[in-house]
Amino acid sequence: MTADTSMWYCPKCGFVDSLRKYFWRCPKCGGPLDIMYRPRWEPIEGRRGMMRYLKALPPIGAHVTLGEGGTPTIVRDVAGIKVWFKLEYLNPTGSFKDRGASLAISLASELGFERVVEDTSGNTGIAVTAYSRIRGLDVTIVMPETAPQGKKILCKLLGANIIEAKSRGRAAKKVMDLINSKTFYVAHTWSPLFIEAAKTLAYEVYENGFRGNAVIVPVGSGGLMLGIYRGFRDLVNWGLLDCIPKIIAVQGTSVAPLYEEVHGSPPSTTTSSDLADGIMVPNPPRLKELKETVLESRGDVVLVDNDDIVGALRELLHSGFIVEPTSAAPYAALVKAVEAGLIGRGDEVLIPLTGSGLKTLKIFEALLST
Ligand SMILES: Cc1ncc(COP(=O)(O)O)c(C=O)c1O
Ligand SMILES: [Zn+2]
Is 10's C-beta closer than 6 angstroms to any atom of ligand 1? Predict the structure, then answer.
């Protein structure tokens, strides 16, 4: 492979093809694809945000950007643990999904697609719509009826056609009817572009001075977790870090496929975690890789429920962090990770705060009355 060759590649069956074509999954075996390219550590002087690390990202062409990435890091002492909060909710459309949307829509536009379609519970739809509209692409978002009202409204106002489905599973089925040769199906739960983009979060905290030993990260499809892991792995490969931090994945008690995969049995509790809509992904396509990543990093999966999330959310709001309920899940997991001996006093831990609470004010209203 030469430095400027980049290819889709399937780790399962070995399929490879040019990035000048688009595949949302492997056309041979149906598995999730990766991108084969050579990331380079050459941060671009004077640039901030994701565009600073273009040399470490798949070469796609002209980038559509709204200034994603470069989010602030706030360090606080929480019960003797130094916590690095990465304020991903301050991205242009209010979530870390802007990083992946920037890469995915850049590729859609570069390859000449006219329509973009996606199934999502919210944040990805908002990000994908905003980036697509900049390039004049037509966008259709299929959302479960249960998606937070604020997220649906924002998607519509940004210019998406919204189709509602009974559930997340139904949305995934419905979106298949919309795919043809002119539509770019983002498929963020499958997409390696969202993983590659999330690597830049690790690069940024490294440049901010993070040398901690653990990351607590919410896991739905696991794109964020895999991205952070691969970002730290790059930094180790480039000789900039000695080791990859331990990955502590956080799932909700109601939908916990990674927990089941790692622990070999479903959660013993029957409490609900439906406040964390962003991590309710029953069948993440990369489940095996997620398990391997958690185990390789000597980490674990920690469960939280609605009560844990509400408590953590109140604390975060009172600390000035205006985040959505899903984003409170890793903070709720901090105490549990300490109790489980995964982290201890004196440790330094990264917690990405993934999505903005300004989209979930209706949910906050309900919480205020309890
Ligand atoms: C706010 C928020 N946090 C975390 C996640 C989980 O991200 P991933 O699907 O990459 O695991 C999502 C996904 O939609 C989200 O919206
Ligand atoms: Zn394959």
Answer: no
Q: Ligand 1: which atom is nearest the Cα of residue 226? A: 10
Residue 320 domain-assigned (yes or no): yes
Distant-in-sequence, close-in-space partners of 33: CB < 8 Å, separation ≥ 6: 8, 9, 10, 15, 23, 25, 26, 190, 192
- For residue 29, tell me if it sits in a domain: yes
Domain encompassing residue 30: 1-38
* CA dist., res. 334 & res. 250, Å (int): 10
Q: Is the pLDDT confidence value at 3 over 50?
A: no
221 pocket-lining for ligand 1 (C-beta < 6 Å)? yes
Contacts with 298 (C-beta within 8 Å, 6 or more apart), sequence order: 246
Whose CA is closest to 276, among 243, 257, 250?
250
Neighbours of 169 (CB within 10 A): 13
In a domain, 357, yes or no: yes
Beta bridge partners of 300: 248
Q: 93 CB less than 6 Å from ligand 1?
A: no
Are 175 and 117 spatial neighbours (Cβ–Cβ below 8 Å)? yes
- Answer whether 135's CB lies under 8 Å from 112's CB: no
Task: State whether 14 and 83 are in the same domain.
Answer: no
Give pTM, 2 decimals: 0.97
Do 17 and 8 meet the contact criterion of CB atoms below 8 Å apart?
yes
pLDDT digits (tens, 9 = 90+) for 318-359: 999 999 999 999 999 999 999 999 999 999 999 999 999 999
The pLDDT of residue 1 is 43
Number of domains in the chain: 2
Unique residue bearing structure tokens 């259709």: 140
- Asked if residue 294 lies in contact with residue 247, where contact means CB atoms within 8 angstroms, the answer is yes
The answer to whether residues 16 and 85 belong to one domain is no
pLDDT of residue 150: 87
287-296 and 223-237 helices, crossing angle to 10°: 50
326 lies in some domain:
yes
Most ligand 1 atoms within 8 A of CB, residue of 354, 358, 359, 363 to mutate: 354
- Same domain for 11 and 85, yes or no, is no
